[in-house]
From TrEMBL:
UniProt protein name: Response regulator
GO terms for MF: phosphorelay response regulator activity; transcription cis-regulatory region binding
Stretches assigned to the Response regulatory domain: 7-120
A Pfam family this chain is assigned to: Response_reg
Keywords, sorted A to Z: DNA-binding, Phosphoprotein, Transcription, Transcription regulation, Two-component regulatory system
InterPro entries: CheY-like_superfamily, OmpR/PhoB-type_DNA-bd, Sig_transdc_resp-reg_C-effctor, Sig_transdc_resp-reg_receiver, WalR-like, WH-like_DNA-bd_sf
PROSITE patterns hit by this protein: OMPR_PHOB, RESPONSE_REGULATORY
SUPFAM superfamilies per UniProt: C-terminal effector domain of the bipartite response regulators, CheY-like
Keyword Cell inner membrane: no
Length: 238
């Protein structure tokens, strides 16, 4: 079976940009989701797990830079910013926040398509596909296909797409110290920028979901100066 084409989320409050761009990308073989606001985009990311976000910077209410910060903090998906010609500061801030690329408005759709494809090519397979079968760590069963964990006591915990990928990578490498840079490259397909806290934020969220005491973790432990280590054996449930 051929894999589904990548799904791209387009976030722009301007309908005359959002809808024609969605139609153009669909004609080029991509699947698209459209959002007119940051709030709508957050719902799309939580439910549909897009491979990439094309994000307008200037939007009423929550702006694109704020949404970009949220996307990077949760570990992806990658972001291409749409910026105004005069918005050099926005472009610099967006790249410092962790955006993967930017395109200046007004833009040529073919140029944007080329940049989308370039960013998608940089995403390693490990960031797209996690182990397809359930595995166990401690009292938890991880079902990557459903993006959830099940505890021996019956509790079900949902994972975001970034948390799901990150936990899968840690489970691929039990008892091995993995640096923040390595985890970010494997999970999101990008390098870490200055003061990049994306991995630390995701590890913190995972600990709140799986550790009996998140302040004294025993499953995902910190190696000071080194990174993080999954301190548990992994049982394959295939």
């Amino acid at each position: 079976m051929n894999p589904l084409p990548h799904q791209v989320l387009i976030v722009d409050d301007a309908r005359d940009i959002r809808e024609p761009l969605g139609q153009y990308l669909r004609r080029q073989g991509l699947r698209t989701l459209l959002a007119a606001s940051a709030a709508e985009a957050r719902r799309c990311v939580e439910t549909a797990n897009p491979a990439l976000v094309v994000l307008d910077v200037m939007m009423p209410g929550e702006d694109g830079l704020s949404l970009c910060r949220w996307l990077v903090a949760r570990g992806g998906p990658p972001v291409i910013l749409l910026t105004a010609m005069a918005g050099e500061t926005d472009r610099i801030v967006g790249l410092e926040l962790g955006a993967d690329d930017y395109v200046v408005k007004p833009f040529n759709p073919r140029e944007l398509l080329a940049r989308i494809r370039a960013v998608l090519r940089r995403i390693p397979e490990s960031a797209r596909i996690v182990a397809p079968h359930p595995r166990r760590i401690g009292p938890w069963q991880h079902d990557p296909a459903c993006q959830r964990l099940k505890h021996d006591d019956g509790r079900i915990v949902a994972l975001t797409s970034g948390e799901n990928r990150l936990l899968g990578i840690l489970m691929d490498n039990p008892h091995r110290v993995m640096s923040r840079e390595e985890l970010l490259e494997l999970s999101a397909g990008r390098g870490a920028g200055p003061y990049d806290r994306a991995i630390d934020n995701m590890i913190s969220r995972l600990r709140r979901k799986i550790e009996a005491d998140p302040k004294r973790p025993v499953l995902i432990v910190t190696e000071w100066g080194g990174g993080y280590r999954l301190a548990a054996d992994v049982e394959d449930l295939a």
